[in-house]
Amino acid sequence: MATISTVGTSERAAGDVRRRTSDLARAQARAGYLFVLPTSVLYLTFVIAPVIVTCILAFAYYDPMLGSRWVGFDNFIRFFTDRRSLQILWNTLRFAFFAVTFNVLVGLILALALNRAMPRWLLYFFRLSFFLPVIIAAAFVSIVWGYFFADDLGIINYYLRLMGLPSVRWLTDANQAMTSIIVMDVWKNTGFFMIIFIAALQGVPRSIIEAAVMDGTPAWRQFLRITLPYISPVVFFCIVYASIGALQVFESITILTQGGPGDATRSLSILIVEEGFGSFQIGYAASISVVMTVIILIITAVQQLLSRKWVQ
Amino acid sequence: MDNVLATRAMKRWVDAAIIAVMIVLAIGMLLPFLWLFSMSFRSVADAYKMPPSFLPPSLDFSNYVEVLTSRVPFVRIYVNSILVAVVVTVGQLVTCTFAAFAFARLRFRGRDALFFILLIGLMFPAQVTILPIYLGYARLGLLNQPIGLALMYLTSSFGVFLIRQFMLSQPKALEEAALMDGAGYFKIFWRISLPQLRPALSALGIITFTQTWNYYFQARVLLGPEESMTLPIAMDVLRGYMASGNLSVVMAAMSMSILPVVLLFLIAQKFVIEGITMSGIKT
Question: Membrane-spanning regions, if any (chain A) (predicted)?
């Protein structure tokens, strides 16, 4: 009797526990949905839905007054057959390539230079001066650089003349303007990558480096054989991050050159704003932004694949 | 032994030389800021005189007064900027920590898929969302309203990701113990998780405030009239008005515009740096 009753209670207890766990799981799930609700609703409203609508608009001629109509791939065909838009696409890709390369490369070199023992205040000062441009809006610093780059009243040209060198038409020469914008972009953004690389370098195990030093491995080989493979995931992250930002380049160009001279520095973002909000070619502007997004997705995907293949 | 000592001595020299070069570079990085700050104190008559100054020639605030009394409603624009940045920062701190708590600590169906979809958002540029938002705002009367700009950014994939990363690195023993004691999930979130998140919240708060303060593309599309503008777009307008002579006045406006961000960074450099490395390294 006693045994049977014991078995009975324990079975009942086990059932209770099971029921309680499933109750708990259900309560947990309910809490989970509640906690993600605000973000999900906002994300749906301001990211997912607009992206879908943009993709739909890209296949339409949008005119709320006289009526919209489907145009199939016409907007994309127009973009990829128009010499001007192709020039602008090329400008953007060229800008992105050089801006990403130099931002990441200079950031890495600066980080290597700063990755050594120094007093705290000095490190604070370095972080301050290299990171300050990162946190100030490009809209603000571009105005300042506009005065630096100006032709006759420009500050850089003033010092060039002082040294007996010829002035440079930093922003008004079609062959020079893009380079000047890239220079400013690297000044502005490279500190971000420097900070990330400093943290990554501190993660490289000291013992391995010290062993290499003992073996008399030259510094450049230490870097190529040990440090670089170790921080390569971070390098890939930086390249993706920099590319996403660079492909959207807008304000520095708008303020420094307004896309000129001619179309020499016009970027996709500027074209989107001009077409979409200047001439109200909403459908065409949507197709350009879809092209831009697809480029970003492709670059991210390619870099993900490469990093999976090469990293460690 | 001699060899080791010699390499050590040489290493010390190399270190010193590199640091010296870096100091020169670091000062070079600061020149545009030194210039803009110094120029804001130059009298209008001397604005374009060469050589430029990189240290304030006087402490004459008349250019600042001129900005505040100019045709551009600078005070109004400044208030707009503060409003947008504060609303967005507070909004993100709330929504992102809520979501991060769910993603890091709770189990529910579809959690990982949802998180993945949220992360994809990091790759969508503002350019691909702005047209429908503009059209929608036009219908709802939210165009030319600073608050419209704020609404767009009440949550962010980056914020959720950052806080979740940080939460995952924290032990969850306390939270589990509280659950065993029968505490509700909201109470656990509020009493136990949130206090542990202070460094991550500071980082996200500062990064979000700075980012919002600096929005240009979105602001330029959504905000037309001067009274509705935020500082980055207003600066361009101000420059237009002042183009012919008043470089000093533009730079006074600029100094005031970058002040909050610079102060924030001077005070809380540590949190910004930690926040950025936290999100950058652990991807």
Answer: 33-62, 95-114, 121-148, 191-209, 230-250, 282-302
